[in-house]
């Protein structure tokens, strides 16, 4: 049975992904997804990708699916995640939400991203 979602990159897409990977300045997840797309475009088999990239078959199937549905840029970027945003300061009010009274110890809950 063939792959459900095939990756066929244009020359421009391939060049841009190769540049992104060679620069190495993007997040590790973005770089991994870019490498998966390049390997999939080169018709590298799933087992070879899994061995080379050390990712699950499900991971590169999701990247291929997202490429097919939303394009290469969407396939390499993180999607918006749901969750609490109680510690995100409003514009002009930085730190108001998780800080205590003036002079008190700083609230370190923002250091790990949660407000519990």
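-> sequence recovered:
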């Amino acid at each position: 049975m063939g792959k459900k979602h095939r990756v066929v990159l244009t020359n421009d897409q391939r060049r841009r992904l190769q540049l992104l990977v060679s620069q190495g300045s993007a997040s590790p997840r973005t770089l991994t997804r870019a490498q998966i797309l390049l390997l999939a475009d080169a018709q590298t088999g799933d087992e070879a990708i899994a061995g080379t990239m050390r990712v699950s078959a499900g991971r590169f199937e999701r990247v291929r699916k997202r490429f097919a549905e939303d394009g290469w840029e969407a396939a390499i970027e993180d999607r918006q995640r749901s969750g609490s945003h109680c510690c995100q300061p409003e514009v002009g009010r930085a730190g108001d939400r998780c800080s205590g009274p003036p002079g008190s110890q700083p609230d370190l809950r923002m250091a790990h991203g949660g407000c519990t």
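The mean pLDDT is 77.
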